Amino acid sequence: MEHKRATKKSSRDGGGGREDAVAGERSKYQTKIRDSQHRLDKYTAENDRLLDEVSNLRLQMREMKNDRSELVRAHHESMSLLAQVSEEKLVEFKNKSEQEAVESKAAQEEALRTVLEMMEKDCEDRVAELDAELARVEEDRERAARLQAEAAARAEAEAQNKQEVEEAARLAVHKLVEERASKDVELQSLEEREKQLRSELELTKQRAEMDKRAAEAAHAAAEAASAVGLAAAMGGGNNNNGGGNNNNAMNDAFPPAPGSSNDSSSDASYDNESSSGDSYPESEAPSAAGGGGRSSPVIPENDVPPEPRRPPVIDRRGDMRTYADSPFLNDPRWEMTRGRKIALALQRFSWYQPRGRKHWDAEGLGLQSAWAFFEHLVLPRYIVKDSNGQAESSLLPNDSDDQSIGKRSRVSVYESDGGSTDGGESDRDEEDSDVDDWLYTPKPSKNKQSRGSRGGGGGKSRGRRGFRQKGDLDRAEPGETNFPTKLYSPLFTPLSQLGDFGIGIGLYFSSLRAVAFITLIAGCINLPNIFYFASEEYSNNQPGVNLLLKGSAICTEQVWVPCPTCTLEEFDRARSRIAGATTVTPNGELQTLVFALKNACDGAKFQVGIVNMASLGFILLAIAALSLYQRRKQIAFDEQEQTAQDYSIEIWNPPPDATEPEEWKEFFESRFGGHLTCCTVTIDNDLLVKALAERREVLFDIEEKLKEGAITNTLSLSEAGAKILHGRNFFGNVMSRLSPGIPELVARLTVLNARIQGLVQQDYCATRVFCTFETEGAQRQVLTKMTVGSMAATRNNTHKINPNLLFRGEHVLHVREAEEPDTIRWLDLDEKWSTKMKQLFVTTLISFGFVALVAFIVVLCRRESAAYAALAISISNAMFPSIAKILTNFEAHASETGKQSSLYVKIAIFRWVITAIVITIITPFTSTITNGPEHLLQSIYIIFFADLVTTNVAQLADPEGNFKRHFLAPRAGSQERMNLLMGGTEYTIAERYTNMTKTLFLTFYYCAIYPSAFFLCALTLFINFYVDKYSLMRTWKPAPMLGPYIAKFSRVYFMTTAIAALAIVSSYLFSGFPFDNLCAENVSHSAYYGTWKVTDGEGQDSVAVIEPTVRSYHFCNQFLGFGENFAFPALPKAQPTGSNWMTDEQEQLTGIYGWVSVGVLGLVGLTFLYRIVRTLQDIFSASYKPDGDVQGQSFSEVETISSYIPQVISNHFSHPLLAVNIDYVSESIFDWSDPLRSHSYYDMTRDAEELMKGNEDVCQRAFGQIRHWPPGGVDVEEGEKATKSALRKSKDINKRGNSVSWSSKVTCKTYSKDDPNNYNFFNANASTSEGMNFNGHSDPLYDPHAQNEARVYKENPQNNEGANFDPYGTPDGNFQNNGHNQQNQPPPNQHFDQYYNSGLDYPNQPPDPMYGDSQNQDGIYGDSQNQDGASWEGSEGTGSESYEQSGS
To answer: Could you give the CA distance from residue 650 to residue 790 in angstroms, rounded to a whole number?
Structure first.
């Protein structure tokens, strides 16, 4: 180090210093060279001395031989011959020694020259390194200077930013002070007003007293004359009646505010409930009516109380630290889970649930409610039926007890405090209601058919059979209170019932069980191989082998054989397979004999390979049968459980301005006739929705950190945050970085409020449209007629579709069957394709990085022990799915199907590579079939054991879930937090599929040398089946109801790849027998004959017995895989010349199996190619093919169905946050309910309206739209009974960004292919039993005159002559085909108003402040509508009317 510092210092002084350093280094290396030369001279002298001693020994031997010849002179002839032979050998030895001496001297000289050259080269390299180091020092100095300048600039910017923040804070405080002053002034004015009212009240009392006295005087005078008194009495009664009329007139002039009641106690209770349940700061909290601003407590004398614009939010929870009394606290103990029983038993101990007298859950009911939440809202349950197969009525404990608010039925969006709207099952007292009639929308009754009678048949309902109910269980909605429910049985729930959890879940369990049976049968096919490997013929019954490894190809018969040419380098990875023995030659020289360990087992028998190929053929046929089986199960699951997907379509490319559901309803109903029940339009407002969701979470955290009873308005929160900041120390500042406190949360809230206010005012475009029809037939007809290739839809190729099905006459819609509602990822629908590809590339690259890292760790563990490597593999297989989920969360996917597919690929590749491929690479080839913990088959067995025991035990124990439920939940600070901790363990179907395919791939990979793995695989999969089934029904969190895509994806791509691996790897394994890298020679070395004590490369001693018949061997690489001898297919001709190790049977087997592997690989490649072609076909020309038959059950008749409601899942709330206005959406289309809160509580559009001070028009444009038109609903023409949407009062439903007109006549017309003039009207609701045939209802008629109607208004504007036009009446004028009256008649039972429940109540619409009376309607469509640029115009010759709305 001192020399380096000196060198660096000299380099700074100038160029001369560098030369001195070089000279110093050179002198140093010259000194080393001299020392080396000295040592070399010393070794040379020692060598000369040894040569002299050898010469002396030779002289002594010569003298001894001479003496010996003198002693045996009697045998002169024999001894002379011996002497002659000895002399010749001595001469030969002498010549050889001299030659070796010359060669040794030359070698020494050559070594000396090499050393000198290397030293000189090292000196030059060192000088170059010093130069490079000096250059790096200069670069570091420049970089440090640059970083110092950047740090100074950043510090200056931070100082400026801090100054700006302080200025903003000062302005905010100033504003708050001004607000407080204004509130004080307002309070003073209110106090003055109160004084004035009191004075007026005193005056009124005085007048009343005077009137009373006058009345008494008049009464006394009247008693004097009875006749006059009688007349006076009659006149007094008339006066009283007149007073009553005056009171009624006063009530008409000043009506009470909507939501009020004649019962003052009801008003008081509602006000208290609303205020206690409000979790927002005072300046931001929604009012009871959901309005924009805070209303004055005193109404001006001449003003009418404002009408509430939106239904009130029902929140019965109260304060966050008040426990929520669950309606399921009195569940029978025998129906509780074991965890709940344990919690109830341990709850009385303070170490389990620490609580005191002032604790929010002092009585322990909060924890009990949380466990009830876990069992009734998290775990799946089914509805209990009676002996006739009918659901029993709800008989909840204490259901009639009004003291317990938590024991109520489900809360509707419009539910008042006095009743429920749950299908009329609880009485609704209108007199006690605090919600006006116009807010109450009764839930339509649903006559749900039993599962046994679906499909239009009169099937018999099956009664209960104890625990074994097969296919007759109806899954209950989370929190179901209308019917008694029970938990599913993990053991006795039939496989046919698992489709209730989603088709993907049902197919997973079906595939798991089917694959287990396939591997079990394949194991039975491989029994001959198992018996052969365990027999005496193969390896002497495999002594010392583990019981579960018997029947594998482990070879215990190993012998040492001569290998004169083998070297230690050739067996470097398996030093125990090479050994040596030292002996003395007849010439007296020391000689080392080299031995190699040979496996004396022949596993490549022809019958063994044939059995393995038979199992391969069976698996191929079984996987093909599995495809048909999954297809049949998919249809069965789909028909068994009716879901929203069966009735819905998804439009991928809506026009950017097509954001009104009413327009989509008119388009589909007019062209196909079926009733559109629900329509959801999403827009690209993901940033706004994310900000609103984060704001809710911040408010939740603030409320959780505040003390009980603290004021939550903005000023109080700012003051509390300032106090905390003022009192913080250094440790507090550090902790605030890790866990934000109230100051940070308040600051974040301010930022979010500003961000939301800015984002709300942006313009957004439609991204997706989800339309749900009332019948399956209507959905299938739309998909059949409108399905086109994605390329045609992207390019808007209007020639690919019937022109009458063009949206607005010019747009080709990309229509597909929608996925399940809970699988839609609403925030990712507007992500660009290029962005998705970038995200996918980055996350995949990171995944491969993890694969390399874990592979390196496994290699390090394998060097220590095979058990450590197996443990590392098991731990990594368990941990990587969590890492893959984190990576996948950074990707944008339109649905959970795409996300699960991406997750599946990442986890599958990781597990396949780490479990099977890496263990093969790191294990030496010669350790493939040897016995011992460090060898391949033993490692595979340990991995199987870990998958069979360790993984399943950990899953059953559920340490994470039990830690949350039994440790964190009893210590939670609020009921909400406690419920969140009871949410269950999250799982993904992709992770479960990869767990199955990993075991299957490992089995297929090594089945040639470990046929017993088929039985281990079957046992593992059977155990996984029941363990996963238990977890699904007892510990796992509810997952989205995925479709069949993942099952198909796994079968088509990964199972077929595993089969290809079986064929290819088996062919290479059979070609590699006997796995010892030794090839026999045709010679035998006599020097090896006998018994030898040999020492292997690891220092272990053993005995080698070499018979004269044993041939010698040489090293040959028997591995034909990737490497120097790579060959595909693995055929006998791939053996190197002169290195043949295969037997005749082995060559015959390998030749057949090699080409079989090629055929299997080609078959798999054709499968992949077919899927690619199908994908390209969907891009260019798609078609729709329905699955199963129409079930004949309408959407509104299905009890547990849901629709497409944009929502955001948050880990702060036990239910999703809604990103759409749901004021006029029936609760029947939600798949969840909160017993204590209405759905409106989770409506984030209310937050935006509150921040925008009630500017509903702006907020309406910032969110997607959803509409629900239940069949048989009330039309808006009925006046006062119609519901009015506050968001729609000043919005025309047909308002778009450009002028567009479309035909309304051609949408009602169909034609027959035989007779174009024969028109029939199609009623989708009346022909659901016909499936997709729809006899007599063909494509809508192509009207050539209607194709240019989109340009009629612009080119030839006409006056409106049909203000009172009836769309179903017979119009005046000469219309085309007016003789066919069916065309102009409304559909049977389908007469509906397209503005129903849309918010457009034209007869009662007040004048708009901007447009004046332009929205007033005369009848249905008044003349005044023309003032807003809308007109119904007749198109001559076409018989159509087009409605045109000018864009703003």
So the answer is: 13
Ranges of beta strands (E only) in 1178-1270 are 1207-1208, 1217-1218, 1265-1268
Extended strands (E) in 1016-1098: 1078-1080, 1090-1096
State the DSSP H helix or E strand holding residue 596, giving kind and residue range, or none if neither.
strand 590-599
Q: What gap in Å lies between CA 650 and CA 679, rounded to an integer?
A: 10
Cβ neighbours of residue 64 under 8 Å, at least 6 residues apart? none
**Burial (Cβ within 10 Å: 0-12, 13-18, ≥19) of residue 854:** buried
What gap in Å lies between CA 681 and CA 659, rounded to an integer?
6
Alpha-carbon distance 1352 to 1441, whole Å?
11
Strand boundaries in 724-835, DSSP class E: 766-773, 815-817
With residue 609 as reference, give the H or E element that holds it: helix 606-640
| Paired tokens of 1305 | 């006549």
Beta-carbon contacts of residue 788 (< 8 Å; ≥ 6 apart): 797, 800, 801, 812, 814, 815, 1181, 1182
- Residue 1207's contacts (CB-CB under 8 Å, 6 or more residues apart) are 826, 1216, 1217, 1218, 1219, 1242
Alpha-carbon span 676 to 896, nearest angstrom: 26
8 A C-beta contact, residue 1444 and residue 1353: yes
What SS3 class is residue 1217? Answer: strand
CA gap 326, 163 in Å, rounded: 51
Question: What is the sign, positive or negative, of the torsion defined by CA atoms of 667, 672, 677, 681?
Answer: negative
Tokens of residue 1013, six digits: 């793995």
What is the CA 212 to chain-centroid distance, rounded? 78
**Prediction pTM value:** 0.65
In angstroms, the CA 946 to CA 870 distance is: 8
User: CA-to-CA distance for 649 and 772, rounded, in angstroms?
Assistant: 7
Bridging pattern class, strands 474-475 and 381-383: antiparallel
- Running along the chain, 1448 residues long, what does each successive block of 10 average in pLDDT? 48 61 80 83 82 79 71 64 70 77 79 79 82 84 83 83 81 81 82 82 81 73 52 40 37 34 36 36 36 35 49 69 74 90 90 81 86 91 78 50 35 32 36 32 37 35 38 79 88 88 91 95 95 91 87 91 90 88 80 90 91 95 92 85 90 94 94 92 94 93 77 77 83 82 90 93 94 94 92 89 91 93 90 90 93 90 78 85 92 91 92 86 88 84 84 90 93 87 90 92 93 94 94 92 88 92 94 92 86 88 89 91 86 88 92 94 92 85 82 85 91 91 86 84 92 82 93 49 34 35 32 37 36 36 36 38 35 36 38 38 39 37 35 34 34
Torsion angle of C-alpha atoms 1213, 1216, 1222, 1227, degrees rounded to 10? -100
User: What Cα–Cα distance (Å) separates residue 762 from each residue in 1065, 1261, 1273, 1320?
Assistant: 59, 9, 35, 46
CA atoms within 13 A on the CB side of 97: 15
Residue 1130: CB atoms within 10 A of its CB come to: 24
φ, ψ of residue 1036 in degrees (nearest 5)? -80, 150
Q: Would you tell me how many other CB atoms lie within 10 Å of the CB of residue 1197?
A: 17
SS3 category, 1441 = strand
Beta strands in 1061-1163 (DSSP E): 1078-1080, 1090-1096, 1101-1106, 1113-1115
> How far is it, in rounded angstroms, from Cα 878 to Cα 952?
11
- Report the distance separating Cα 1070 and Cα 928, nearest Å: 12
Q: Which of 451, 466, 479 is nearest to 379 (CA)?
A: 479
* Cα–Cα distance for residue pair 698/761, rounded to 1 Å: 22
Asked whether the beta carbons of 306 and 295 are under 8 A apart, the reply is yes
Residue 1149 in contact with residue 606, Cβ under 8 Å?
yes
Rounded Cα–Cα distance for residues 124 and 41 (Å)? 26
Q: Treating both helix axes as pointing N-terminal to C-terminal, what angle do 1056-1072 and 1144-1180 enclose, rounded to 10 degrees?
A: 160
